[in-house]
Amino acid sequence: MLYYPQLSSGVVSQYPINRRTTLRTITNTLASGDNIRMSDPGSAVVGWQLQYSNLTDAEWTSLEQLFEAAEGKLTTFTFLDPMDNLLNWSEDWTKPVWTADPLLQVSAGIADPFGGTGAVQLTNTAQTTQRVVQSIAAASWFQYCYSIYLRSNAPTTVQILFSATGQESLIQFLVSSSWTRAVMADSLSLQEDGMSFGLQLPAGVSIVAFGAQVEPQPAAGYYKKTTDQAGVYPNTRFDSDSLTQTTNAPNQNSCAVSLVSNLLVD
Description:
Structural class: mainly beta
Strand content: over 45%
Number of helices: 1
Order of helices and strands: EEEEHEEEEEEEEEEEEEE
Radius of gyration: 21 Å
Shape: globular
Number of domains: 2
């Protein structure tokens, strides 16, 4: 599977970034002169304009290799939007995209740290650890940052986890009665297609969680709520059959990249 590369710093792009979403409405004019308008969801696309400067030769080569492997505009690849949250349904963990162990109770509609009701109550009723995770179609070896707001009536500990087939990484966090944003940045050494992110609770523990977010970078950005559309775009293409690079100095390159993706994934 092809993936749009990260830079050596662990980020996907540099600023400024321009993103545009294009939607289409079809109008049918009847003989009476009346108009019937309907949205055309199959034509919805999102595009990005990415500007790069001071790229190392290795970073430029990774972009060039992807362009050649994709044969310009011909073949699709996965792009992780640096401006979005990679997780779907960040505030409703009762949705099917979240997989909870059998004895972990998940309840939505709980008071959150921003005055709404977007948090979830997680209660482990088992005698052993239980976890809840979401899997995304992304490279296991990329750098990711997972952040989430946590609170508990009684002080306790939970573990944030990254996992792929055959490897996982866990970090323990202390949860108190005040909302705290737990942040974990890591990457795995495995070369796998797919990553999972979530929480693991010890036996008998109950916590409130809000704002699960994964970003393709080494630090957390501001929280971005998602529903059924997140920042993983597996059907992205280059928007041009040419890729031009400028060498500004030894081991310093600049270029502009245009990408486009359908919003609806087959």
